[in-house]
């Protein structure tokens, strides 16, 4: 395992003030890729490269494969203990009810073969009637989302030690305001589906920073190739010019830009070379030689004035 540690951020509302690595490997699979074995092999390779933070969800169908990879990494001696890793999972829409939160977490832990999560998130601020429905969900399946009741159950998960920290995903400023008005344990993290140099989420970033909530960008490179993604980041001429000026790749420039915004990153790539590129951010983050110039910042501000492309 790599000896270079990934920078971490403190989660203020977590139990015992736990810290989270700023770079995570996402394990969401598009409809046409990523078998369980592919995921397992990729996670093992990622651990060898130095990844310690892995992002999954009950909806992704990757929890079991991730759990198997963790067990194998321990057996191979790639890690000495589970405590070396930071594992994030999420509560799905069909479990987004106060009485189903704890059972859903227990199921995730069972699939992962873990005793606790480092971070547990509400995947979306939406509730769908319990059942094994096909997606996309029809309107008649969508029902009232009891945010107050669900969050109280999330807080109980943290109090029980089943999750060291709790948070949300795909929450707007308004949803966060509602949540903060009654939460006794504020969310540590808001994971956002779309945030990258093409879509800056400035208002949301500023709100979360003021409230001490860490933002994680789930599609830092625009999710090129995914059914719901965009090519706008990886095909950008502006980013290409900046990358060439620094002797870096477009991906590295994009990840550096996000880091300079105080944003953490969950990037999904099972390609070994791309994983290596993302992991070079361990060194680049600490390097004063890779800093975007004022002119480059201005170019990215203009580039980021586009419209929201997929979700939040």
TrEMBL record:
Residues 23-277 form the NADP-dependent oxidoreductase domain. The record marks 90 as: Lowers pKa of active site Tyr. The active site is at 60 (proton donor). GO terms for biological process: alkaloid biosynthetic process. Substrate binds at residue 123. PANTHER family: ALDO/KETO REDUCTASE (PTHR11732). This is Trans-1. It comes from Vigna unguiculata (Cowpea).
């Amino acid at each position: 395992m790599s000896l270079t540690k990934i920078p971490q951020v403190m989660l203020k509302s977590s139990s015992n003030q736990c810290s989270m690595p700023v770079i995570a490997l996402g394990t969401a699979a598009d409809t046409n890729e990523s078998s369980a074995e592919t995921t397992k092999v990729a996670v093992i390779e990622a651990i060898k490269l130095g990844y310690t933070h892995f992002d999954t969800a009950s909806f992704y169908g990757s929890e079991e494969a991730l759990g198997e990879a963790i067990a194998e990494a321990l057996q191979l001696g790639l890690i000495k203990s589970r405590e070396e890793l930071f594992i994030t999972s999420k509560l799905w829409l069909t479990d987004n009810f106060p009485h189903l939160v704890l059972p859903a977490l227990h199921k995730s832990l069972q699939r992962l073969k873990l005793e606790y999560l480092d971070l547990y998130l509400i995947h979306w601020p939406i509730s769908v009637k319990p059942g094994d429905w096909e997606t996309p969900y029809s309107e008649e399946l969508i029902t009232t989302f009891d945010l107050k009741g669900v969050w109280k159950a999330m807080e109980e998960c943290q109090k029980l030690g089943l999750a060291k920290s709790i948070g949300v995903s795909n929450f707007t400023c308004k949803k966060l305001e509602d949540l903060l008005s009654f939460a006794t344990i504020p969310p540590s993290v808001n994971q956002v589906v779309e945030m990258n140099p093409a879509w800056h989420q400035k208002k949301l970033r500023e709100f979360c920073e003021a409230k001490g909530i860490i933002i994680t960008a789930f599609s830092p490179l625009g999710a090129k190739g995914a059914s719901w993604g965009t090519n706008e980041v990886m095909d950008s001429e502006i980013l290409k010019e900046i990358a060439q000026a620094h002797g870096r790749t477009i991906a590295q420039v994009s990840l550096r830009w996000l880091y300079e915004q105080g944003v953490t990153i969950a990037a999904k790539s099972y390609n070994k070379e791309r994983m290596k590129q993302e992991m070079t951010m361990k060194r680049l983050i600490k390097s004063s030689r890779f800093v975007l110039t004022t002119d480059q910042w201005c170019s990215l501000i203009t580039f980021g004035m586009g419209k929201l492309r997929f979700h939040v």
